[in-house]
Amino acid sequence: MLLPAATATGAAATVAPMATAATRVEQLTGAWLRSKRSIHTQRSYHRDLGDWLAWCAGTGTDPLRSTMSDVDTWITAQRRNGGRSGRPAAESSIARRVSAIASWYTYLQRNTADDPQPLVTRNPARTDARPRVDPDYSPTIGLARPEVDRLQRQADADSATTGALIRLLVTDGLRVGSAISARIEDLGTDRGHRVLDVIVKRGHRRRVAIPPTVGRAVDAMLAERGDPTSGPLFLTPSGRPIYQLYVYRLIRRLAHLAEIPTADQLSPHSL
In the predicted model, what is the mean pLDDT of the chain? Predict the structure, then answer.
């Protein structure tokens, strides 16, 4: 079985009364993905499900008839050479993938339980072999204060936009998704303080205070663009809204210029 055609943002297919099992899977998979509020979660689940279905196709396993032992074998394969880079996958990555497909199977099971022929009757991903990850552990590489200062100097030298973006990520601790979705009209004041309303995890909105140093950097960036009153807060040099991969590459480029030893391991989360 190939990865269902429904994507994280695609429309659900119209299902005829005598729809095939494959069509039903596509429809429910699309609905399952859209039930996740965060677009980043949708993309991650879509990718993880694709890994499972690709393994099933390569081993001749029917994912709708798979067993717990099949999932256990997949977990073992990931520990050996199942990472996307061809190297053993990290335990946290394996745990995330198994969690994703467990959610998918639960959705299929609950939505077809009353059908004459349910798509699945059990959840094979409910296995004790799923890695247990310490909730306090994080593989994210952090930065020392002097490294942050050097990174910020490189950002300021790069452009007004880069300087404002890095300063906001560092000072307010925003997730990259919040920075990407920030808009000019979300800027405001609250009790005399500059503020920015941002979208956080699960689609909720949160108001964050903007310290004077960040506010001045944002004002300088917008003044350079002619003081627009609406639209994306941050744009690439070509005038497009910034996107996740752009921010990743930007941070690593700046980190190399700042001679930070861990430059190739940094991510927006490091800030």
Answer: 86
